[in-house]
Amino acid sequence: MSIRIAAHALPSGEAIDLTIQDGLWSDEYSLDLDDRIIGWALPGLVDVHTHPGAQKPGQAIDEELLRKQLSKNIDQGVTAIRSPGLASNPPDWFGTDSELPRAFHAGPWLAQPGQFITGWGRRISNSDFPRTAAAQAATTGWCKIIADWGIDDECISEELMAAIVSAVHGVGGRVAVHSQNESGSAAAVRAGVDSLEHGMWLDESLLDLMSKQGTVLVPTMKVFSLSVDRFLAQEDSPKRDWYVGGTQRHPALIKSASEAGVRILAGTDSPEFSIVAEIKELAAAGLTPTEAIGAASWLARDFLGLSSFQPGASADAVIYSEDPRENLDILDFPEWVILRGKVLRRPKIGNEPAENRQ
Ligand SMILES: [Zn+2]
User: What is the pTM of this model?
Assistant: First the structure.
């Protein structure tokens, strides 16, 4: 089967006219075309922070659940994910199955003793941290460090974080850091980590450094804003103030970060949530529609080393009937999903919202 995509490609909206040869984009045309696809094209959506495959703390990855959740990603137009932390090491087909998203991952979360979700992740002593993180990153390209967990937890120091970054970069890997505290975020940014996850209490004076060294911010806004009412209903406590205050300062921080040149990327933090909802949160925080969509598409692909619509690049695309920059709601209605040159979803009669599809 031969396909020709004659569509407007974001971010510029310029017309592209490409065919697919051996899973790659090509600008050579053949006459026996089965499908000529028109519309508005993204190189796929990307969820750079999700933890598929397990539901309850302590459970290992369940392959059937993992497959189901990744298939739902495809329904939603998500052609690549990054998992900064998994319940266990994933099966060999994770990221390579031809019908499921590309996947990057950091193996199990790495945390200090006494921190993080009981039953998940590995607890590492300070003296072992750099070596363990480097060993993980040498295997999968990424490690995920919990810089701080609870409100009163001791954060990983800047000195230790710098030793971790040095060891991981030394093996060609990258470091993703979870932080919800000011000192953990400061240590991560000063140590030059590759991605800061959440980071709601980050001091804005560090944004220029973040921008200069290319540390991205993955706020995962939706997962926090969804819980804020539950905390607001509680009695005053330091934990309540920490959670509510962090969630309330997140939008302005993200806007300032973007203005300082920090790359903002979109993540759901859970396969239960839609990446489109996160795009809308980023837009509500003040990113332009192009920036918000880019955070979950071409900017994220570039960060993960995936190229987009050039001849010779892998043929990944999601096609919409309207320009998503004009109407973010259309992102819930992907018409075509193409991955590694293969059509995985095509328009359905009636085209109901992706989350309603079976
Ligand atoms: Zn997470």
Answer: 0.95
The whole-number pLDDT of residue 33 equals 66
Query: What's residue 81's pLDDT?
Result: 98
Question: Domain residues for 34?
Answer: 3-43+307-356
Q: State the distance from the centre of ligand 1 to the C-alpha of 8, rounded, in angstroms.
A: 33
How far away, in angstroms, is 330 Cα from ligand 1 center?
27
User: What pLDDT sits at residue 29?
Assistant: 79
Q: What's the CATH number where 15 sits?
A: 2.30.40.10
Which residues in the chain come in under a pLDDT of 50?
Answer: 354-358
* Domain identity same for 10 and 106: no
CATH classification of the domain holding 228? 3.20.20.140
195 and 177 in contact (C-beta within 8 Å)?
yes
Does 76 share its domain with 20? no
d(CA 356, CA 111): 37
Determine how many CB atoms are found less than 10 A away from the CB of residue 148. Answer: 26
Q: Give the number of domains in the chain.
A: 2
Listed residues 255, 274, 299: the one ending a domain: 299
Ligand 1 centre and the CA of 94: distance in Å? 18
Look at residue 356 in the predicted model and tell me its pLDDT.
46
- Could you tell me the distance, in angstroms and rounded to a whole number, from the CA of residue 107 to the centre of ligand 1? 12
131 and 106 together in one domain: yes
CB < 8 Å & 24+ apart, contacts of 17-21: 18/309, 18/311, 18/315, 20/315, 20/338, 20/341, 21/341
Question: What's the pLDDT score for residue 350?
Answer: 56
